[in-house]
Amino acid sequence: MIDITIENFEAEVIAASMAVPVLVDFWAPWCGPCKTLGPILEKLEIAYEGRFKLAKIDSDQEQQLASMFGIRSIPTCVLMIEGKPVDGFTGAQTEGKLREFLDKHLPAGDEMAAESEVDEAQALLAAGDTQAALQKMADALAADPANDDARFDYVRLLIATGSFEEARALLAEPIKRIPQPLRFEALNQWLKALEFATEGDNADVAKYDPLIAANKRDFDARFGRARALLAHNQWTMAMDELLEIIMRDKGWSDQAARKLIVAVLELLTPPKPKKQDAVPGQAAGGIELLGKSSAELDEATAMVNSYRRRLSMALN
Question: What is the CA radius of gyration of the chain?
């Protein structure tokens, strides 16, 4: 619990709510219901173990803040998430009603534990400790098996580090869903491409060149070359090859080229910033795309958008 004034409001309420929900309690020393509500809120802040932060504002002393929120009676509580008010209530409430209110909006304890593990994993990746990061991501998924964000991050890093068998096992459930989540299908397509490249000399990009030179419509060779390029992290060259297939035969092999390029574009799309990015400019799972600066992220977005337009033109 923290007392809020106009001086610390921005840091302790607005900024803090970007990381964890903040429940703002407007009260006054003379208010009888406030004296009933306050101790219950303080008890729940402890019981919820960091799932929300309690901020108290003396509405008599901080009339500017009370006016800003349009407070007409007290006690009034406002729940702030990501810098914005999302819900609230007026008057004293029972502990049961307060729990119902909080549980509507707050992440579950296991979800928060998973997010914490993922944040730690990203920090470990930034420090170059990939194995420790993998363990943290495994812990995150174990803490919250239904957390698709944790699953995606973990599988992506497993694929990037060559742990194909474990990655495939973790992909088995999401790729069976109807509808199939695009990001997991993208991982599945990437995994199949890398598995192909591990067989024999399939990763030798040059071996496909004479086949394509002899027959521009040798789509098996072009598709093999695209997957080999992906194995060497030559993302744009791989997409160029896939576009060549699509422009010549949109439906070839059950639209295999379209499916793979869509997957690549999904993987290359810079992720939306998280509340507290441990490693700005890195994709989920710690796979760096095109650098860490905002300018480079803008460049990555522009590149993805350009290929999306080219794909749309090739399909039309």
Answer: 26
Strands 2-3, 76-81: parallel, antiparallel or unpaired by DSSP?
unpaired
Average pLDDT over residues 39-59: 91
User: In the structure encoding, which two tokens stand for residue 225, read together?
Assistant: 């070359």
Indicate which residues carry an active-site annotation: 31, 34
The burial class, CB within 10 Å (0-12 / 13-18 / 19+), for 116 is middle
96-105's contacts with Cβ under 8 Å and 24+ in sequence apart are 98/40, 98/41, 98/44, 99/44, 102/23, 102/44, 102/48, 102/51, 102/52, 105/21, 105/79, 105/81
Tell me the average pLDDT of the chain.
86
Of 254, 267, 251, 270, give the one whose Cα is nearest residue 314: 251
Reduced to 3 states (helix: H, G, I; strand: E, B; else coil), residue 226 is helix
Q: Which residue has the tokens 């006054």?
A: 28
Helices 164-171 and 182-197: angle between axes, nearest 10 degrees:
150
Residues 235-243, mean pLDDT to the nearest whole number: 96
